[in-house]
Amino acid sequence: MGFASLNPSYGWIVLLADRASNELEEVPVVTIAGVTLVADLAGALYWEDERLLVVSDLHLEKGSSFALRGVLLPPYDTVATLGRLGAVIARFDPKVVIALGDSFHDRDAHGRLSPANRDILGALQARRDWIWIAGNHDPELPCSLGGSVASDVAIGMLAFRHEPTGATGEIAGHLHPKARVSRRGRSIERRCFAGDGMRVVMPAFGAYTGGLNIRDAAFARLFGGAAFTAHVLGDNRLHAIAAARCC
Length: 247
Ligand SMILES: [Mn+2]
Fold this sequence. Notes:
alpha/beta, 18 strands, 17% helix, 36% strand, binds manganese (II) ion
């Protein structure tokens, strides 16, 4: 895969050449501090130059976490989330994967991974640099999980951390942004990337994760008002919608 050309009339779309078939394809992108990343509709970002894939807030074992407290959810969230992650990894074949924190729903959640899910995770990690960024739900992850653990990572113009600080070039998670838009009298709410060109907050990737509406004050504080864009994850494309137009 490689960028063919930027289409300035759309801004967030480039033409991507599939090297194998030599076909051109339009893909959505999000630009952060001058770096253009492919936005995958599953809720991941891919940095072609670094062959780096980033996902946030997997919240693995959320189902079993609730079960421990007597709230029964179907216990299939981990296998569903790992399955979607596997599909994204197969699409991009990244050299580096960053899990941007809250990868596990609670401090002990990694210990509740079933042997089968542990194997699935191990297969995803094979032949890649895997970085677990510490989140507030999973501040301490053991080496036995594979990969390395970090509080944050800086590469070139970009900084990867769990909780957004608003710094330039920051890719963060934690807030689980969702946007609600009304169209023809119908209101829909979908996960989104929230960004203003200099920083972005990623959607939660996990199967059972809730979301925070981007009109919440937490986003206004981060972006200094509503001058940012919701890159909304649609079924077939990414919809760039001004935050001020969301409700
Ligand atoms: Mn968090």
